[in-house]
Design brief:
Layout: H1 2-31, H2 44-56, E1 60-61, E2 76-79, H3 95-103, E3 107-113, H4 122-129, H5 135-145, E4 152-158, H6 162-174, E5 178-182, H7 194-203, E6 206-211, H8 213-216, H9 218-229, H10 240-248
Parallel strand pairs: 1-2, 4-6
Antiparallel strand pairs: 2-6, 3-4, 3-5
Helix pairs in contact: 2-6, 3-7, 5-10
Length: 250
């Protein structure tokens, strides 16, 4: 009789442990959250694929519009389309705006590419190799032009979110992308001039933003103030890297 009671008690304990395990696992899955599983934003298919990698870095994902959610302590990645922390959606700004914001150190960018097929760039390659220039820019240009447009990702972030952006960069690398992060004064490469940032924005099919209290707050406002004045400024002369990308792009 005592043995049967002990057996029953053991069975109950095992069942309770199993229930607790399932509950904890469910909580873990919920934490790997896409905040709006039914969201229908323009980058939803890409974001669904990237969400698990972002989650491992402590970053949530929004498939629809960021403005449907209040800022949270946990950063989110969302499509730039419709991202309107102030008066105007950020995706509506022209490439000159992004160039100026980068030049002023207001915003940083992550550029991620997944090269699938090589293309002929013999002329551009000779231009690079004929001169004593850094190989990094040439290699980047080759990779960028060898990447189909739907595999090019542009991610904007505010300067205070550099650490989060670096986590996002690592998440993209885990997802199979080659990712580069740039912020003036922190990780700036001498050859990555503001004009090139604007051109990369224009040529990226997927444009995302890291949604935080900073991007919704004063730093986002700082970015928007450049948008009102940039079109009044004289057009900047394109650098050799901007020219190479524009000339080789169909």
């Amino acid at each position: 009789m005592v043995r049967r009671k002990r057996h029953s008690l053991t069975s109950i304990q095992f069942m309770l442990a199993a229930v607790i395990f399932v509950a904890i696992a469910s909580i873990g899955l919920a934490a790997a959250k896409i905040l709006d599983p039914d969201g229908n934003g323009s980058d939803k298919d890409l974001l669904k694929v990237l969400a698990p990698s972002f989650d491992k870095m402590g970053i949530d994902t929004i498939l629809g519009k960021a403005n449907d959610f209040r800022p949270d302590d946990r950063a989110r990645v969302v499509s730039l389309a419709g991202f309107t922390p102030g008066r105007r959606a950020w995706d509506s700004y022209v490439k000159q705006t992004w160039a100026k914001a980068f030049e002023e150190g207001v915003l940083g960018v992550i550029i991620a590419i997944k090269t699938q097929r090589p293309i002929k760039l013999d002329v551009k390659r000779r231009e690079c190799e004929a001169e004593a220039v850094k190989t990094d820019p040439c290699e980047f240009i080759r990779r960028w032009l060898s990447t189909p447009q739907d595999k090019r990702i542009f991610v904007a972030f505010t300067k205070s979110d550099y650490k989060i952006a670096d986590d996002a960069r690592r998440a993209l690398e885990k997802a199979g992308y080659t990712a580069f992060i740039y912020l003036k004064g922190v990780s700036e490469e001498p050859w990555l001039d503001p004009g090139l940032v604007g051109e990369l924005f224009a040529q990226s099919q997927h444009r995302l933003v890291i949604d935080t209290r900073n991007s919704r707050g004063s730093e986002g406002v700082s970015f928007e103030k450049w948008c009102c004045s940039v079109l009044l400024m004289p057009e900047r002369a394109p650098t050799r890297w901007v020219t190479m990308i524009k000339e080789a792009t169909p």
